[in-house]
Write a structure and sequence with these properties.
2 helices, mainly alpha, globular
Length: 53
């Protein structure tokens, strides 16, 4: 199986019922969605990736 992008990866993880942490993909300037997510899933650290670098 070849996974080509993040969305395919998410779909395969869900389909296989593998252990996973809550995750959400955000677009630029979606600050309200980010705040809602961090309130719903409080954590000491978050893993953040950015394609702009």
């Amino acid at each position: 199986m070849v996974i080509k992008n993040k969305m395919e990866s998410i779909n395969v993880i869900n389909k296989l019922g593998l252990n996973k942490f809550p995750e959400q993909l955000f677009k630029k300037n979606e600050n309200d969605k980010i705040k809602k997510f961090t309130k719903e899933y409080p954590a000491k650290y978050y893993a953040i990736r950015d394609r702009s670098f």
